[in-house]
Amino acid sequence: MRVALVALETTNHRNSTGNHRFERLARQLVDAGHDVRFFCSRWWSSDPDTVELDGVEYHGIADEDALGEFCVRLPLAIGRYAPDVVHTRPAPPPQVIAASTGGTLARAPLALEWYGDEGLDPDAPATRLVAREPQMVITPSELVRTRVRELGALERGSRAIPEGIDFDAVEEADVGDGVDVAYAHPLDESANAESLLLGLAELRDRDWRATIVGDGPRRAEYEQQAADLRIDDRVTFTGACDRERRLRVYRGAHVFVHTAFREYFATELLWALACGCVGIVEYQAESSAHELVENYERSFRVTDPEGVADAIVEAGECDRLDIDDTWQSYDHAAILDRYVDTYEELMTDFSFI
Questions:
Q1: Which CATH superfamily is domain 2-164+332-350 in?
Q2: What confidence category does residue 111 fall into, taking pLDDT thresholds of 50, 70 and 90?
């Protein structure tokens, strides 16, 4: 299959989760034997126009920030490549229209990868226009899918494909020193780690240890809160950790608590569940985390710190595991299959237009 991926900006321009997901998809498609060409703006010197990175061929259509030039050149570049599918990102909106035009020239359907962190104004006419332009909008969760549908995307033309994990890495990871509770999230304005700390403070008279993974501007504030609650001797702040260390923490933990205010897809929760953790999710209107555990027996959904505390106690009745094969269906290979199936359906449907 020939796939044209389109994104004016890459992780070399902006380090966002959505950009990482899109480029990971490119690498996985190449590794699976598909022909992939990634059309973007150059982050390298203007000569040459093409670079290869991790097996992916990046074609610099224009210099960085040259949106107008990029959109003028893109349709013809796509047409010459003659892909089976064109797959683009929603920001900036003009690139979607240019990618759509290129798809028309190539007689290929258009898919749109909408992660949720693009920073688009939902009230802007251009945002609503791009939501309606493609034959398929792909999101990481039903939360984001619902928002895109509210912008005008059709239900039959939208699909949630979750983030993936490397299940082999889970199986190969060491099991860390046992802790009772684990938490992981950047310690920023959306972390809401105070819900966890307040819940743990309710359990001062019980024997437990907790590990908080993550760093950010509110770390010192959370460390002070733990001290004020007189639980700092039992809460370890590890800072930012690499994947190997995170898996070691998760495989050694009994419970993983997710309380963040905003989450387009709860990737760390998914890793922890695969590592055998009991999942405790505090419901938040801007978070999709509850979607992962809606039909999962080893989980609890709560609404406040008191609920977090009660769930931690009740989770003690669950067996302690360090891996759960239930989550093999979220392995990267399985998620890639869902993308490829979506492309094939689009190609079949588009052939009748």
A1: Glycogen Phosphorylase B; (3.40.50.2000)
A2: very high
**Residue range 3-15: mean pLDDT, rounded:** 94
Tell me the HSE value of 41 on the side-chain side, using a 13 A CA sphere: 20
In the 8-state DSSP scheme, what is residue 38? E
| Residue 195: strand pairing partners | none
* Three-class SS state of 213: strand
Q: Which of 318, 193, 164 has the alpha carbon at shortest distance from 255?
A: 318
| pTM flag (> 0.90) | yes
Q: Are 88 and 109 in contact (CB under 8 A)?
A: no
N-to-C CA span, the chain: 20
Mean pLDDT within 99-116:
97
Contact 178, 254 (CB under 8 A): yes
Give the pLDDT score at 64: 81
Q: What is the DSSP string of 159-203?
A: EE----B-HHHHHHSPP-S-EEEEEE--SSTT--HHHHHHHHHTT
The average pLDDT across 243-258 equals 98
Quick one: CATH architecture of 167-329?
A: 3-Layer(aba) Sandwich (3.40)
Q: How many helices (H) and strands (E) does the chain have?
A: 13, 16
User: Is residue 207 over pLDDT 80?
Assistant: yes
Rounded to whole angstroms, the Cα distance separating 350 from 85 reads 10
- Type of residue at 22: F
Query: Which has the minimum average pLDDT: 177-181, 215-219, 272-276, 347-351?
Result: 347-351
Contacts of 310 (CB under 8 A, 6+ apart): 302
**CA atoms of 88 and 10, how far apart (whole Å):** 12
Integer-rounded Cα radius of gyration of the chain? 22
Give, in order, the Cα–Cα distances in Å from 104 to each of 50, 97, 100, 132, 137: 24, 11, 6, 16, 17
Model confidence pLDDT, tens digit, residues 170-196: 999 999 988 999 999 999 999 999 999
Q: For the chain, what are the domain ranges? A: 2-164+332-350, 167-329
